[in-house]
Specification:
The chain is an alpha/beta fold. The chain has a single domain, classed as Glutaredoxin, CATH 3.40.30. The protein is 39% helix and 21% strand. The strands form two sheets. A four-stranded mixed beta sheet has the order 4-3-6-7. Strands 1-2-5 form a three-stranded mixed beta sheet, with no helix packed on it. Strand 6 and strand 7 form a beta hairpin. Helix 3 packs parallel to helix 5. The longest helix has 15 residues.
Length: 151
């Protein structure tokens, strides 16, 4: 990720600006359909949400999980950082999708089918005590069960 310094101070220095482009969800759903994959939306606070950071350290960085997710999913991270800024259009898109999918808490993972319909979510909206597995093998098993229902 490229970063640019922008004027202004925030707890010790200028904010960095991410150059990440906004997600084009319709195009990503079409790409997933063409590649015979499903879409995963990952809503994250990459630099302030401890469970999000733990997920990236313990699961997303795991070689087995990386290989599995790249082979089976179009994985889209929708970030809501505090220590750097997103491009305005990226932030607007992320906020729109956050509202559209009624995301709470962070991190939330949503799997979409080829029509863009939600078919799985972790944590579930009805779960009074939301939790996230940080075991790559367990998450692969959960995602594979969802994938097998679609293909």
């Amino acid at each position: 990720m490229m970063a640019l310094l922008v004027p202004g101070c925030r707890q010790g220095g200028p904010l960095k600006v991410s150059e990440a482009p906004p997600v084009n969800l319709a195009a990503e759903i079409q790409r997933a359909k063409t590649e015979h994959k499903l879409v995963v939306l990952e809503f994250s606070g990459s630099d302030w949400c401890q469970p999000c950071m733990d997920f990236h350290k313990r699961v997303a960085a795991n070689p087995e999980f990386i290989a599995y997710s790249q082979s089976n999913f179009v994985w889209l991270e929708l970030d809501f950082p505090e220590k750097f800024k997103l491009r305005p259009e990226t932030e607007a898109t992320n906020r729109l999708l956050l509202a559209q999918f009624k995301v709470e808490p962070f991190p939330t993972f949503i799997v979409l089918d080829h029509d863009g319909r939600e078919i799985w979510r972790q944590p579930d909206l009805t779960d009074p005590n939301p939790s996230l597995t940080l075991n790559p093998a367990v998450l692969i098993t959960q995602l594979e069960a969802v994938r097998r229902k679609q293909f």
